[in-house]
Amino acid sequence: MKYRKLGASDLSVSEISLGSWLTFGVGVERGRALACVERAFELGINFVDTANVYGRGAAESFLGEALAGRKRDSYVLATKVFGDMGGGNQGLSATQIEKQLDDSLKRLRTDYVDLYQCHRYDPNTPLPETMEALTRAKQSGKVRWIGFSEWSPKQIEDAVAMAGVEHFVSSQPQYSLLWRLPEKKVIPISAANGISQIVWSPLGQGVLTGKYSPDTPPPSDSRASSDKMSGFIGRLTERPVLEAVQKLKPLALEAGCSMAQFALAWVLREPNVASAIIGASKPEQVDDNAGASGLEIDPALFAKAESIVAAATASP
């Protein structure tokens, strides 16, 4: 496993990180989830990402249990704030940031998180209020560094320009061969301001593994077949996309790696990407995905892959 520096922080994170959206505490049976966490650490993955809203606390509670026996400084732990936690608890107001951070720490069974991220932008809270609350959270020692997820270029620029507050070191956008929007503005702005990308859905909800055929139903144990985990996969399983992905198989074969490794290595070819988040439901997936770290693949193969998927996707 190779590691990269996270923006302007002092954090060194594994190129492959373990996520928990739709999986831990929600869609994956506890025993298998624990096995995934164990295998991730065995392979050198040191970065774990979650959010308060995943299962309304269920993912954080699971990770609090799974990580309880490990030395706290042996891993990098990230969570997020913004989502609806019920009872009107939502957003990035100073009150919510303070409350949700304390609640997350309790569920995670830790005194601090290494990275605290704004899960989305809150149009109902003035940006200075949010940034000042995050600054206080860092000054309290409960948060080491701060980040955001899916903010617009303008929102990022406004935060970067603000004086007297802590500045972001990470951005968490959707980014993959099937979704390249961050390349237009988010990555350039971030690179110029000490912000790294931690990308979610680098495998296009698993579609880029090649396991979904355009001519047969999805495998029974796949995300697309799960009532709990299939809600966001829609457009990625449209026939033109699946047909295009099947055409990537010879390229991965030529590169001497799996489809998943090829897709993850494509994401990691971007210097501003610090880590690609994987969402594993079985240890074997962690094994395969971790193998993408450090892969050297001919850029010409990546160029061919980009050409193949370009016409078939709705990515801007």
Please characterize this protein's 3D structure.
The chain has 316 residues and is an alpha/beta fold. The strands form 2 sheets. Strands 3-10-9-8-7-6-5-4 form an 8-stranded parallel beta sheet. A two-stranded antiparallel sheet has the order 1-2. It has 11 helices and 10 strands. The chain starts with a strand and ends in a 6-residue tail after the last helix. It has one domain: TIM Barrel (Alpha-Beta Barrel).
Secondary structure elements and pairings:
Blueprint: E1 3-5, E2 12-14, E3 16-18, H1 30-42, E4 47-49, H2 58-66, E5 76-81, H3 94-108, E6 113-118, H4 127-139, E7 143-148, H5 153-160, E8 170-171, H6 186-191, E9 196-199, H7 239-246, H8 249-255, H9 259-268, E10 273-278, H10 283-290, H11 299-310
Parallel strand pairs: 3-10, 4-5, 5-6, 6-7, 7-8, 8-9, 9-10
Antiparallel strand pairs: 1-2
Helix pairs in contact: 1-10, 2-3, 3-4, 8-11
Strand order of the largest sheet: 3-10-9-8-7-6-5-4
The count of domains is 1
CATH superfamily: NADP-dependent oxidoreductase domain
Task: Give the overall pLDDT as a whole number.
Answer: 93
Which fold name is given in CATH as the topology? TIM Barrel
Please, how many helices? 11
Query: Mind describing the biggest β-sheet?
Result: 8 strands, parallel
* Unreliable spans: 222-226, 228-232
| Topology pattern, helix = H, strand = E | EEEHEHEHEHEHEHEHHHEHH
| Total beta-strand segments | 10
CATH class: Alpha Beta
Overall 3D shape: globular
